[in-house]
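Batch manifest, entry 17 of 40.
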Amino acid sequence: MAGLNQPLSDAEYGCLALMLTRSQRAMNVEMLDGFLAALVCSPDMVRASEYLRVIWGGDHIGGEVGFRNEAETQEFFDLVMRHWNEVARTLYSGVTYVPFLLEDSGGFARANDWARGFLKGMDLRRSDWAGLMDDEEYGGLLVPILALAHEHHADPELRPYKEPMCAERREQLIVGVAVSVPAIYRYFAERRRLSASVKREGGTYRRSEEKVGRNEPCPCGSGKKFKKCCGAVTLH
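Output type: structure tokens
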């Protein structure tokens, strides 16, 4: 059995994608990648009990079909957690971030699902993200994400461009996403450290909630378990 810090193989991404087809409302793997990127960047930790149902579009975990047994359920959790850890490890280490994008039938990556997934992640801590959205200096980091998320908005007035997006502009936005996500991660770094520190002491930060589980991902975004990171005696 692969450890939780081992990146997913192509076959395992395929397995995860197949699991998500159990519900028509569930995210695909591209949207899941954007969603987890937002959760890793988030100023405050989002617990599994909050985000798992969002992955399934509000359905029970496993969708309409459901998982056959506990082992299959655990496999899904492990695949999601391993991908979470890979995103967190990439952003924490400062290596080049590349969003996981699916190609359409013509071989082109659109990135719309990724961007919509990121916004779904932001929605889980909307008030905490407001500071970045209102920041005159750094708020522009969200522009490529918002542009791709709203490209096909039902209300034409809310679409970023009146004319169809050309391939060159799309590529520029995707490159913008790859640059923005690490910058957003750094923007909220101090907030995450403070949140993790207060939770370690059993206090509250901006809201009253349960303490972080010792085996849950550390809210600072390092990709390590809380007990081995900010939950340890010495903070990193």
